[in-house]
Amino acid sequence: MNYLLAHVDTFLFDCDGVLWRHLEPIPGASDTVKKLKKLGKNVLFVTNNSTKSRKAYCIKFSQLGFEVKESEIISTAYVAALYLHECNFKGKVYLVGSKGIADELDNFGIQHTEVGIGSPPEDYPSNACDFKYNADAINYEAKVNSTKFLVGMFEGTLKHPLSFCRYTVSFVIDFIKD
Questions:
Q1: Does the active-site annotation cover 9?
Q2: Is 64 in a helix, a strand, or coil?
Q3: Which of 9, 103, 106, 136 is catalytic?
Q4: pTM for this prediction
């Protein structure tokens, strides 16, 4: 352990299942993080859970007994929004995801559809009759209006989840190829 502490300056911790399970902190996790920080180590927290913004994660960390700054949290929602911001993206994001992604996009002033699957925007083409499950409509929105398609964890139910997933995967593959 002494060798590790002497030779490592930065520690990355996953959150779900490593620091806590659901709403219960892992015993000793908070003390370990405090000790590392006291020793002057950089401590960062990473998660692939996009349902919360970094601000929401700070609240959760605090409720579970951790002292964490927003700048120490790296989430997929934040990284996606940061990427679009750094690319100087000016379009609109078609968001299939949760509030965490929407909040991070909002923090950078990036326009997006509503959380979840959503309804068509006012200016959406009239021939896109079923916005929720129409891959061609999503394709049109993405390519014609310079929109990015962002998929994250979605908390809710879909009328036709398998159909939507098939269209989503097909669209993302086609979009990446172009």
A1: yes
A2: coil
A3: 9
A4: 0.70
